[in-house]
Specification:
The complex is a heterodimer. Chain A has 6 helices and 13 strands. Chain A is α/β, with parallel strands linked by helices. In chain A, strand 12 (about 170-175) and strand 13 (about 180-185) form a beta hairpin. Chain B is α/β, with parallel strands linked by helices. Chain B has one domain: TIM Barrel. In chain B, helix 2 (about 60-75) packs parallel to helix 3. In chain B, about 55% of the residues are buried. Classes of the chains: A alpha/beta, B alpha/beta. Chain A: It holds the Pfam family GATase.
């Protein structure tokens, strides 16, 4: 058990990675941005962030030679957190880019949110928690989180979905599969509720 | 309006030389405090986002703003936009690297619309905010775009420019009424409605807020999903929580403020 767990935030050259790093530091992690396999393997927990387009993120992840590091961490059983497009990449594929292959860690696909509402959803929204999860400890039944997305995950196994939001229709926005937790929202930008979720992740990394 | 929309209350911090200032009609700048302290207070009060505008925006002062942005990012865990003097992908990258979530472009976007497309292509449309300063023009019965912080008039129709900016990749419009800015008479809801009807991206209404009901008007009458104000929050007149109570009472869905 470490009191200040080392969290590797995978750095593949896209997005505002510093936000995730600073938020994790704020809640007690020794968070580093890295693409070094040795550092990732030595970490107590791993975060896969992502922003922008699914295909571009997959390409960047592969160019940074991080695909095997993701699988390594997931298979090693360490706490693993996917955020936003980092969540989407864990699926098999996305409607955003039919030619891009996902990581295939959460069986299912990423699909458009309905065009009856403004896309992207760029606002705060209230999670509807379906299953108790250590990641939601202390957050109540309906925490507020910040979202920026036009797609949502549709897992093959509906039990993988642990939280939804309502935006035009019910959208799946948080998933759990063994040591993998993934969320469409940006906990690093979701004030106290978001920091509480990240604090739960850091607490999990201490175990 | 889509019932699932949650309106955003957005304090705006005008920054020069590393301090938040607020002027009335661009004169008589009054010191409103330290940007990091103020931003952290708004985060704690339940602000949904923040906007920082570098009102000096001279290139030699850019590093001061980058430093402010990176200090804000250490303490503030809500999304924030940085604007003022951003003229290129490189400027945008510097602000995003320092911790900003979005950048807004105003004058540079009119002078070189490609900059919006470039920022959207490089960082995603969700990062690219087009800020528009608009003023009613009697002769043409339309709103026209002003540049350089309101000092330079163009012949550009503000609504048409908003549509063009979105087609180039702007993911959000920050719309300021030059007629109302500093008046405390409320948003120009006609202008706001004209733009929100024309584009299918979020629009932040700005300029003229004097009461909390004005914020609700921007959403209900103007169709904005974000409402921006500065003075009413900076000098302790109202809290974010009071703003949200009023909006909520008027039937607008908001994230409850922190008690």
């Amino acid at each position: 058990m470490t009191t200040t767990p080392k969290v590797a935030v995978l750095d593949y050259g896209i997005g505002n990675l510093r936000s995730a790093q600073k938020a994790l530091q704020k809640v007690g992690a020794d968070a580093i941005l890295t693409r070094e396999h040795g550092e990732i393997e030595a970490a107590d927990a791993v975060v896969l962030p992502g922003v922008g387009a699914f295909g571009a993120c997959m390409d960047a992840l592969r160019q940074a030679d991080l695909e095997s590091a993701v699988h390594g961490a997931v298979n090693a059983g360490v706490p693993f957190l996917g955020i936003c497009v980092g969540m989407q990449m864990l699926f098999d594929a996305s409607e955003e880019d039919a030619s891009a292959e996902g990581l295939g860690i959460i069986p299912g696909t990423v699909q458009w949110i309905p065009d009856t509402v403004q896309r992207p959803q760029m606002q705060w929204n209230q999670l509807h928690i379906l299953h108790d999860d250590a990641m939601f400890a202390g957050l109540g039944r309906a925490p507020w989180m910040y979202f920026v997305h036009s797609f949502h995950g549709v897992p093959t196994h509906s039990a993988d979905t642990v939280a939804t939001v309502h935006y035009g229709q019910t959208l799946n926005v948080a998933f759990r599969r063994n040591n993998v937790f993934a969320t469409q929202c940006h906990p690093e930008k979701s004030a106290h509720d978001g920091l509480a979720l990240l604090a739960n992740f850091v607490q999990w990394a201490r175990v | 309006m889509n019932a699932d929309v949650v309106a955003r209350v957005i304090p705006c911090l005008d920054v020069t030389d590393g301090r938040v200032v607020k002027g009335v009609n661009f004169v008589g700048l009054r010191d409103a405090g330290d940007p990091v302290e103020l931003a952290a207070r708004y985060d704690a009060q339940g602000a949904d986002e923040l906007v920082f505008l570098d009102i000096t925006a001279s290139s030699d002062k850019r590093n001061t703003m980058i430093d402010v942005v990176s200090r804000v990012a250490e303490e503030v865990f809500i999304p924030f936009t940085v604007g003022g003097g951003i003229r290129s992908v490189d400027h945008a990258r510097a602000m995003l690297r320092a911790g900003a979530d979005k950048v807004s472009v105003n004058t540079a976007a009119v002078e070189n619309p490609q900059v919006i497309a470039d920022i959207a292509a490089e960082f995603g449309t969700q990062c690219a905010v087009c800020a528009i300063d608009a003023k009613w023009d009697k002769d043409t019965s339309s709103w026209v775009v002003y540049l350089h912080g309101g000092r330079t008039r163009t012949d550009l129709n503000a609504v048409a420019w908003a549509e063009r900016a979105v087609s180039l990749g702007a993911g959000e419009i920050l719309l300021t009424s030059m007629d109302r800015d500093g008046t405390r008479d409320g948003f120009d809801v006609e202008l706001t409605r004209a733009v929100t009807s024309a584009v299918n991206v979020p629009v932040i209404a700005s300029g003229g807020v004097g009461t909390l009901d004005h914020l609700a008007d921007g959403v209900l009458q103007g169709g904005a999903t974000g409402v921006l104000a500065a003075s009413i929050f900076h000098f302790g007149e109202h809290t974010i929580s009071e703003a949200k109570e009023v909006m909520s009472r008027r039937g607008i869905r908001v994230r409850p403020a922190v008690s």
